[in-house]
Amino acid sequence: MNPQEAPPAGPLVRTVLGDLPPGELGVCDAHDHLFLRTPLLPGQELADPVAAASELRAFREAGGRAVAQWTPRGMGRRRAELAALARATGIHLVAATGLHQAAHYTPESLGRVRGRLAELFVGDLTTAPVRAGLIKVAGGFHGLDAHARWVMAAAAEAHHATGAPVAVHLELGTGAAAVLDVLCGAGEVPPDRVILGHLGRSADVRAQLAAARSGAYLAFDGPSRAHHPTDWRLFDSLAALAEAGHGDRILLGGDTTTAAARAVGGGGPGMPYLLTGLRPALEAGLGGEFTEQVFVANPARAFAARWR
């Protein structure tokens, strides 16, 4: 190295208020939403910054220090208000770029970004006034359509340009193998830069173990009213992964998508339940070391990047 050159920067977590050493992230809700708008949930928008602040403060009072918001482009992510919330509450917030499934957008809005999707993702990650820290994409039910493959190709390109992690919505917990084939095979994204969301929505522990063996992170979300039929299996999945030596692949998040799902002013369980309900159960059943790993150490690695 030329002695006048600065040494390469280590991994950093890109928050809405700037880059953060991973060790400062703290207890993290690794998959949630503070703002969200989609035609698939009419009248159930997350659009109230006061309510968002109340939920964040309740999460902080329970011991939380960081939240990754997976709301992508075109779904009301409101990055400027995320920055204001981070300042007001002291919670580290990681925002997303990317696109969800085609059903969440109009054909006209998708047409406006065709041909420059990767460029838009890179701009959100590197030059926007409030920068994103992850790329959100989405698979389909047991497979990938042309829209998903297009978005994932752009996400892979943006990853190679920036180093950003890629977070994936798995429809009802399915299709992980197809997603990894596109992102890590054709797209050449390292598996440890991929976060697979919603695997718990399918109670197939074999698929969860296979995904963990790939080296990807597994983001389990819930419990929730919407996914209660599989949420009750969450503990068994985490225990099976830990027993197989994959405790270092696990992330946990609330995935609050409607106002009614919030702990403050809604029917819950919301963000705080991760720490007031789930964390004590994990400590009792799987130990404090495992619990610290999934809430602190794993998110610090998963969301950190050597930004380019």
Automatic annotation (TrEMBL):
Zn(2+) 2 binds at residues 136, 169, 198. InterPro entries: Metal_Hydrolase, Phosphotriesterase. It comes from Streptomyces eurocidicus (Streptoverticillium eurocidicus). This is Phosphotriesterase. It comes from the Bacteria. Its cofactor is a divalent metal cation. Keywords: Hydrolase, Metal-binding. GO terms for molecular function: hydrolase activity; zinc ion binding. Zn(2+) 1 binds at residues 31, 33, 136, 255. Binds 2 divalent metal cations per subunit.
